[in-house]
Amino acid sequence: MKLGGIVQKKYLILMLLFLAQILNFIDKTAINFAIIPISKELNLPTEQVGLVLSSFFLSYAIMQLVGGYLADRFGMKKVLSGAVFLWSAATILTGTARSYISLVSSRFFVGVGEGAFPASTQVAIVDNFQKEVRARAKSVISAGASVGFMFGSIVVTLLIATFDWHLMFIILGVLGAALAIVLWFLLKREEKKVDRSAAASKSIDKTAIKKLLKNPLIWKLMLAAMFTNIVFWGLQSWLPSYWVKVKNMDMVSMGLYSSVPYVLGFLSFLVSGWVLDKFLAGYEKYMFIGGAFFSALFIYLMFNTESIAIAFTYLSLSNVFLNAMNITVFVLPLKKIAEESVGTATGIINTGGQIGSVLTPTIVGYLITVFHQNYNAAFMFLVASSLVVMVVGMTIQSGKKESSSAVIE
């Protein structure tokens, strides 16, 4: 293949991953807005609302190790297109839910599909980009999360207001199933090298997993991922209810306001990847430390102001630094872990992250209930969690010489 064809191929794959990430996070954010009318229609108490939100993350966490292995073993095409189709089918089932049990069950299977997605993107980056530019490639895909949240907050609230939450989920599921089919056929020709279902170079042996688990960096990144996800999903899961119930915002205006932080979030992902590649190679810990400190600061300021406009300004700023924390967690494996183990390493790290995701909605719901619908204690829990990431960042070795010892070859 000519050089131009190779370059065109890798950027086509990057664009497809970016689009899939957008849809992924539109689906993720949908339940956080829909849970308001869902809880009214199904008469769900706060504790059950927390369990509905957590059910997705339970299966999502379970799938991290499995998804990482599948991505390493079978390649990105099969895992990615299959994952998108599965979570989209389960999203359609969410729209047909008529009880608490059916709602929890459908959300569980959405998590199964989406859980296989992150590791496959990591494998695709390793297969198509050199180490020197992987942070930027990762930042493009990660930026899709902000785009998904930005448009998701508007599209989801408008669909709910225009139709209802049932049809909103069905529409998103149909769109996702269509994208899965497109991904399968577009990647079929392009991914001959990436899809290595029979290639021994992508097989995972037992000793590789043992080596990964003996690496201190993996455990530190697992811990950082866990508390980063606590902050992120604590905000995503409960802020819509906070704006409506505490700040008395209507659904549509809340959705429009909620899109604003993700505009800055989109830019922050791209800038963070560029900074990590250009200026912080070997010193990524400082992105952790600074991001965690300022994220905690702006979350604290957010819930201590009366003005809705100022509160969303602080939320936007906290989102910028939270994204810097998040991308650093997943850039380090791209640079420090042997290429044949990146998918599995990502799965292990993301398992730690999803432990936080599973626990957070329920913990936050419990705190809100215990403090009689006062959200301040819940927000302080998120502030403290962000500061834990700062402490973890301080323990990571800096400098190119020291950080090279973390590589698993």
TrEMBL record:
<keyword id="KW-1133">Transmembrane helix</keyword>
<feature type="transmembrane region" description="Helical">
    <location>
        <begin position="377"/>
        <end position="396"/>
    </location>
</feature>
<dbReference type="GO" id="GO:0022857">
    <property type="term" value="F:transmembrane transporter activity"/>
</dbReference>
<feature type="transmembrane region" description="Helical">
    <location>
        <begin position="48"/>
        <end position="71"/>
    </location>
</feature>
<feature type="transmembrane region" description="Helical">
    <location>
        <begin position="167"/>
        <end position="187"/>
    </location>
</feature>
<keyword id="KW-0812">Transmembrane</keyword>
<dbReference type="InterPro" id="IPR050382">
    <property type="entry name" value="MFS_Na/Anion_cotransporter"/>
</dbReference>
<feature type="transmembrane region" description="Helical">
    <location>
        <begin position="286"/>
        <end position="303"/>
    </location>
</feature>
<keyword id="KW-0813">Transport</keyword>
<feature type="transmembrane region" description="Helical">
    <location>
        <begin position="140"/>
        <end position="161"/>
    </location>
</feature>
<feature type="transmembrane region" description="Helical">
    <location>
        <begin position="217"/>
        <end position="235"/>
    </location>
</feature>
<feature type="domain" description="Major facilitator superfamily (MFS) profile">
    <location>
        <begin position="13"/>
        <end position="401"/>
    </location>
</feature>
<dbReference type="GO" id="GO:0005886">
    <property type="term" value="C:plasma membrane"/>
</dbReference>
<dbReference type="InterPro" id="IPR036259">
    <property type="entry name" value="MFS_trans_sf"/>
</dbReference>
<protein>
    <submittedName>
        <fullName>Sugar phosphate permease</fullName>
    </submittedName>
</protein>
<feature type="transmembrane region" description="Helical">
    <location>
        <begin position="12"/>
        <end position="36"/>
    </location>
</feature>
<dbReference type="InterPro" id="IPR011701">
    <property type="entry name" value="MFS"/>
</dbReference>
<dbReference type="InterPro" id="IPR020846">
    <property type="entry name" value="MFS_dom"/>
</dbReference>
<feature type="transmembrane region" description="Helical">
    <location>
        <begin position="255"/>
        <end position="274"/>
    </location>
</feature>
<keyword id="KW-0472">Membrane</keyword>
<dbReference type="Pfam" id="PF07690">
    <property type="entry name" value="MFS_1"/>
</dbReference>
<feature type="transmembrane region" description="Helical">
    <location>
        <begin position="353"/>
        <end position="371"/>
    </location>
</feature>
